[in-house]
Design brief:
The chain has helices at residues 9-38, 43-48, 63-80, 99-109, 115-128, 178-187, 192-199, 282-307, 351-366, 370-373, 384-425, 436-439, 449-470, 474-488, 493-521, 537-550; strands at residues 86-90, 130-137, 145-150, 155-156, 169-176, 212-221, 224-230, 240-244, 246-251, 254-257, 263-267, 311-314, 340-343, 443-447. It is of the alpha+beta class and 587 residues long. It starts with 8 loop residues before the first helix and ends in a 37-residue tail after the last helix.
Length: 587
């Protein structure tokens, strides 16, 4: 059996042509789905073409776009709201503290603009059903890696593909200007002859476009990924001949080449059908509902517009005149030589609005937005238990969908970590932590959103619910408050905790000073103020009350404020300062 040698352009060009044609087909599909999302309709053109009557109006309802934007909040929260990008757990020593490593790696991942490719990946995944992200080697970034989103129509693989890592060849279409391609003959070793042949013609037939389409082609040879550049539509040879894929990894022997493609598929949903091309997104799921709601709403508004107009006819039929409609215009002050009858069309009732609401509610249920389906309207007669159950189901389904997203983002960050670790060990990056974190341990990685967003929110809610009970226990409240502040406000917590420590120190000093004052002004035999202190009885009593207020009031912990409500130091054990009988006049 003869195997193709893809390094030879003649052997590779046939497959490249097939995959490039798939890019063209996907471009048509992508444009159609984007148009369905935008619903950018020219009403004047529709009227000129006869699709709309002159008095008819079309109201597009952007259900596809609304559902995408509603869902994006949980994905964005999953990525952005976490203090850390990933969570490391050492398989070598499970008790090893990986906190410093997590903070260091997070700083490498969150370079300027790091969110944009991930947001585009999420949006593409929701609209089309799947999206592709690429991990690149980029020594201008803090961790020498970067994540890029690939347009749906610019990544081609065979239609029956289930795992892109099993593909014999992949094509990733790129777009460059003439100046960029010429510069690549110097910086990226592109063939000067082929580039000159390519840029010698116009990019495409459209005179307003300026970008040339070229393909980045990847295939395997002897288990190593090879990457080359071509333009099968214009060139007869490689723009850059294939070479092993290098993502910055090195070992003692030199450069380490990749055995896996640097791409990760993000699935919107995971079903029993494993074929990637059969994945569907909101454009497919919401299209028919969007068309139905737009049609019904447009008909409802058009009918009301027509019902608001006045129509006229002659009161009696004239046998000498045809029954054709005339275009007579009524002018104020004019004399009409016949009796005229005025009438209006009946406006539609609210039944159509109920039908629209039913369609929207059904779509929300299909989208797992159960809380929208269980709103407590007067006509629904929903009980509090039903509403609470629907909300709980919605949260569960939402968490399930985000967990599918976490499967792919985990693969992305694993590739990023491999690059970063290799560059550190090769002394090409200076980390902020000791090298033992990179040498002595093997790690399991999972996205921080799994813990920092989901589990942390649940824990915070529970701590807030228990706080009123903990508050009554002075010895426990301070430590509990410290933990709660650290979890809820990790950036501001050190400032708050420092202020709490300062307040506690002040209270302790005041308590000690109060005890000393009491020992000086109280007669140990009688338990009353000494003769010298009696003139200052009221002032001493006020000082005692202030100290008790600052330290939390009664020792029982009830009714206190300030530090006492948060578990301040025990109150003074000395005898309360009170004036002796008959000493009031002396104060």
């Amino acid at each position: 059996m003869k195997y193709n040698n893809y390094k030879e352009y003649q052997d590779a060009s046939t497959n490249i042509h097939k995959l490039a044609s798939l890019c063209d087909e996907q471009h048509v599909t992508a444009q159609d789905q984007r148009q369905q999302r935008r619903l950018n309709i020219d009403l004047d053109l529709e009227r000129r073409d006869g699709y709309l009557a002159p008095d008819e109006i079309y109201i597009p309802t952007h259900i596809i776009d609304s559902n995408i934007r509603r869902e994006q909040a949980k994905y964005v929260s999953y990525i952005v709201n976490s203090r850390r990008t990933v969570i490391f757990s050492s398989s070598t020593d499970p008790a090893f503290n990986t906190g410093p490593l997590e903070r260091d790696f997070t700083e490498r991942c969150r370079y300027d603009g790091w969110q944009v490719p991930l947001f585009r990946t999420i949006d593409c995944m929701q609209l089309h059903g799947y999206c592709v992200a690429e991990v690149q080697f980029d020594d201008t970034k803090p961790g020498h890696f970067a994540i890029e989103s690939v347009n749906y129509e610019d990544f081609a693989f065979p239609d029956d593909t289930r795992d892109i890592q099993a593909c014999g060849m992949l094509v990733h279409r790129h777009y460059f200007t003439r100046e960029q391609l010429i510069d690549m003959t110097k910086s990226r070793e592109f063939s000067k002859k082929e580039v000159e042949s390519l840029v010698g013609e116009e990019p495409v037939d459209e005179q307003t476009e300026s970008l040339f389409k070229v393909e980045k082609v990847m295939f395997r040879e002897d288990g190593i990924v090879q990457v080359g550049w071509s333009c099968v539509a214009r060139c007869n040879d490689w723009l850059r001949k294939p070479r092993p894929l290098f993502l910055g990894k090195r070992d003692a022997a030199g450069e380490v080449y990749e055995s896996d493609y640097p791409y990760v598929i993000f699935h919107y949903m995971i079903a029993e059908d494993m074929t990637i091309k059969n994945c569907v997104g909101r454009a497919y799921l919401d299209r028919h509902t969007q068309e139905a709601v737009s049609s019904l709403m447009s008909s409802f508004v058009t009918a009301h517009r027509r019902a608001s107009n006045f129509y006229f006819s002659k009161e009696t039929d004239d046998p000498n005149q045809s029954n054709e409609q005339t275009s007579v215009q009524f002018v104020p002050g004019a004399l009409i030589d016949s009796n005229i009858r005025q009438f209006q069309l009946s406006p539609p009732n609210s039944t159509m609005l109920s039908a629209i609401q039913t369609l929207v509610t059904q779509n929300s249920q299909e989208q797992s937005q159960m809380n929208y389906a269980a709103m407590n309207r007067q006509d629904s007669r929903k009980t509090a238990t039903e509403i609470q159950t629907a909300s709980a189901e919605a949260q569960l389904l939402s968490a399930t969908q985000v967990s599918l997203f976490s499967i792919s983002i985990k693969k992305v960050y694993e590739k990023c970590w491999e690059i970063y670790q290799s560059r550190v060990l090769d002394n090409l990056i200076d980390p902020t932590i000791p090298l033992l974190y990179f040498v002595d341990h093997q790690y399991n990685i999972k996205p921080a959103g799994d813990t920092d967003v989901v589990e942390r929110q649940e824990k915070a809610q529970k701590m807030l619910q228990v706080w009123p009970v903990i508050q009554q226990n002075s010895s426990l409240a301070v430590e509990y408050m410290k933990d709660m502040l650290t979890m809820l406000f990790p950036d501001e917590a050190p400032k708050y905790l420092e202020q709490m420590r300062e307040d506690q120190t002040k209270v302790q000093l005041l308590q000690q000073l109060s005890a000393i004052v009491q020992s000086l002004v109280i007669d140990p035999q009688t338990g009353q103020l000494t003769q010298e202190a009696q003139p200052y009885a009221q002032q001493l009593q006020a000082i005692q009350q202030q100290v008790q207020a600052l330290s939390g009031g009664d020792q029982g912990g009830s009714g206190g404020s300030g530090m006492g409500a948060m578990g301040g130091q025990p109150n003074n054990q000395g005898v309360p300062i009170a004036p002796q009988a008959g000493a009031g006049a002396a104060g």
